[in-house]
Inverse folding.
């Protein structure tokens, strides 16, 4: 890790980017801007992965989420866009407050449990880091069956998406 | 290096944002955004726990690999469903998708 930047600053910057972009993704007026904020939030998560010694997954995160999922979402937004902006985007009165309460209660209770368990959780990661070369043998050697099932599931899901989106003539 | 608890708190905040979007938003595409955020919160937890284990375990990264693949499928199928809903209803407001209501 680059020692010229203290890791804590990296963490704070990544947290700010990820959470602000996530809020923007849901609250942005235009759906297109929301999708771009979602991409920024995914890049922040990829930064977390890299800082946690998982560079391969950071790369995969950017390739799959930013490269594939967000682009797919952008195409869908263009396909379903109406001329007039959605007037009914804002929640009904009371609904927004209820959602905020639900989300806040859930997040605060999980964070509270984590903070209570804090003394039992490791404060610093062990020195030995994970070499990227370990991932391949574990993926194909220890867990080969899930890999095959995942391949079948992927082709099934893509076929299903094609059949769903097909226009019947 | 930040502690494991700080990563869990970030993940919980991301989950909260996702739950808020899931329960309040009416646009189907925004609901899909919220689902993706929740999946990412779970992935972040897996990676953080894998790194903080002693000795570090690579299995946590393997499960996130599968999770990313599953999220890609979910996005493809979800967007196809949104396209079908738009074609049938000419709207993707989930409150208007009440054809199954008696």
């Amino acid at each position: 890790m680059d020692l010229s930047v203290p890791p804590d600053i990296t963490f704070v910057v990544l947290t700010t980017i990820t959470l602000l972009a996530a809020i923007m993704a849901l609250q942005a007026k235009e759906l297109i801007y929301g999708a771009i904020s979602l991409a920024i939030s995914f890049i922040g998560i990829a930064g977390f992965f890299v800082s946690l010694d998982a560079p391969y997954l950071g790369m995969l995160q950017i390739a799959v989420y930013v490269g594939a999922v967000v682009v797919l979402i952008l195409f869908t937004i263009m396909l379903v866009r109406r001329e007039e902006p959605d007037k009914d985007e804002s929640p009904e009165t009371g609904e927004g407050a209820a959602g905020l309460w639900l989300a806040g209660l859930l997040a605060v209770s999980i964070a509270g449990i984590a903070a209570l368990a804090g003394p039992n959780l490791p404060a610093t990661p062990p020195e030995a880091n994970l070499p990227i070369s370990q991932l391949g043998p574990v993926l194909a050697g220890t867990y080969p069956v899930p890999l095959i099932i995942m391949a079948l599931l992927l082709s099934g899901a893509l076929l299903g998406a094609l059949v769903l989106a097909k226009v019947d003539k | 290096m930040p502690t494991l608890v700080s990563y869990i708190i970030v993940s919980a905040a991301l989950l909260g944002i996702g739950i808020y979007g899931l329960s309040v938003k009416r646009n189907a595409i925004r609901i899909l955004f919220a689902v993706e955020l929740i999946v990412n919160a779970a992935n972040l937890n897996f990676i953080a726990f894998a790194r903080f284990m002693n000795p570090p375990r690579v299995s946590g990264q393997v499960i996130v690999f599968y999770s990313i693949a599953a999220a890609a499928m979910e996005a493809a199928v979800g967007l196809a469903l949104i396209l079908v809903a738009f074609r049938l209803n000419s709207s993707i407001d989930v409150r208007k998708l009440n054809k199954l209501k008696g």
Remarks:
- Chain A has a mean pLDDT of 84.
- Chain A touches chain B through 84 residues (CB under 8 Å).
- Helices of chain A lie at 7-27, 31-51, 55-80, 95-116, 135-142, 144-165.
